[in-house]
């Protein structure tokens, strides 16, 4: 029988650990981690994500600071807000919810966030730290993927891994994290030639392609572990709206472990956001002088 990797249960354990760290920071240093979430416009999916993030931030005892801006907000106005949050010692993490309206350059905004407060792990400094293995804040979804893999794999050394997806948000960071564990890593995507044959060689398959049911059962060898990052909203043959992953889940009864969609990687993303925020708060409170980007590996 296939082992279902329960992201909800694992995320709950991560959140419990974060809550204990928050209490310890308050008790020992008088610091309460603060997470600022910035939402521009009224994107329905973003509204749902922000509500979940705010609820879970307060649930673990952290301060949640919300900034909801109208869709007509200018890039200059948003950059001014980011600058003020960077300078606020009570804010330890900053998250700008994507997508942003077309008049705002998302890359410019993300680059403006203090790397020490970049709990999404998207700033070039954190990307560079990850690629060089020298610390920094790790993007939440890739970090969650590794935590899920840790529940079923004791030793990654020498394992063959295939990552399907080359995004800066998931595919590339996951590949780098697997390399850090001494896996042999192949990065592929939906246009890769002979993709099924490449996947069949893998002990670990991470799929983040945004293509419903892309990976079929006969693509995956028996005993492999599959992490499905895909979240696709479809209408099935009965006219029902459903959320499905990038993997044909019902065909995976021969694998050693697989994440369901929903309930797999999704809950881990927010849990890792909380973990990154308390990590940033711990670093910034060590000597009372705030975070130093040059010492983020410590």
UniProtKB/TrEMBL annotation:
Residues 139-283 form the Tetrahydrofolate dehydrogenase/cyclohydrolase NAD(P)-binding domain. One of its GO terms (biological process) is purine nucleotide biosynthetic process. The keyword Oxidoreductase applies. Keywords: Amino-acid biosynthesis, Histidine biosynthesis, Hydrolase, Methionine biosynthesis, Multifunctional enzyme, NADP, One-carbon metabolism, Oxidoreductase, Purine biosynthesis. It catalyses: (6R)-5,10-methylene-5,6,7,8-tetrahydrofolate + NADP(+) = (6R)-5,10-methenyltetrahydrofolate + NADPH; (6R)-5,10-methenyltetrahydrofolate + H2O = (6R)-10-formyltetrahydrofolate + H(+). NCBIfam families: PRK14188.1. Catalyzes the oxidation of 5,10-methylenetetrahydrofolate to 5,10-methenyltetrahydrofolate and then the hydrolysis of 5,10-methenyltetrahydrofolate to 10-formyltetrahydrofolate. HAMAP family: THF_DHG_CYH. Homodimer. This is Bifunctional protein FolD. It comes from Rhizorhabdus dicambivorans. The lineage of its organism: Bacteria, Pseudomonadati, Pseudomonadota, Alphaproteobacteria, Sphingomonadales.
């Amino acid at each position: 029988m296939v082992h279902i990797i329960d992201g909800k249960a694992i995320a709950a354990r991560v959140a419990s650990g974060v809550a204990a760290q928050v209490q310890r920071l308050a008790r020992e240093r008088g610091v309460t981690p603060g997470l600022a979430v910035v939402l521009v416009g009224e994107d329905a999916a973003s509204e749902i994500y922000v509500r979940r993030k705010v609820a879970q931030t307060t649930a673990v005892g952290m301060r949640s600071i919300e900034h909801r801006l109208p869709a007509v907000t200018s890039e200059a106005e948003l950059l001014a807000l980011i600058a003020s949050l960077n300078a606020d010692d009570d804010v330890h993490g900053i998250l700008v919810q994507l997508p942003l309206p077309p008049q705002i350059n998302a890359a410019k905004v993300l680059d403006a966030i203090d790397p020490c407060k970049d709990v999404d792990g998207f700033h070039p400094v954190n990307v560079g730290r990850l690629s060089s293995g020298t610390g920094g804040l790790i993007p939440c979804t890739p970090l969650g993927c590794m935590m899920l893999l840790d529940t079923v794999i004791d030793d990654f050394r020498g394992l063959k891994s295939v990552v399907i997806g080359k995004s800066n948000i998931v595919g590339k960071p996951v590949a780098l994290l697997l390399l850090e564990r001494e896996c042999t890593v192949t990065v592929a995507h939906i246009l890769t030639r002979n993709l099924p044959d490449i996947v069949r060689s893998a002990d670990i398959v991470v799929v983040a392609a945004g293509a419903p049911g892309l990976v079929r059962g006969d693509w995956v060898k028996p005993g492999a572990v599959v992490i499905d990052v895909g979240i696709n909203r479809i209408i099935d043959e009965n006219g029902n709206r459903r959320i499905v992953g990038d993997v044909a889940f019902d065909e995976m009864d021969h694998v050693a472990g697989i994440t369901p969609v929903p309930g797999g990687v999704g809950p881990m993303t927010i849990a890792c956001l909380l973990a990154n925020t308390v990590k940033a708060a711990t670093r910034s409170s060590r000597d009372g002088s705030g975070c130093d980007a040059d010492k983020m590996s410590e």
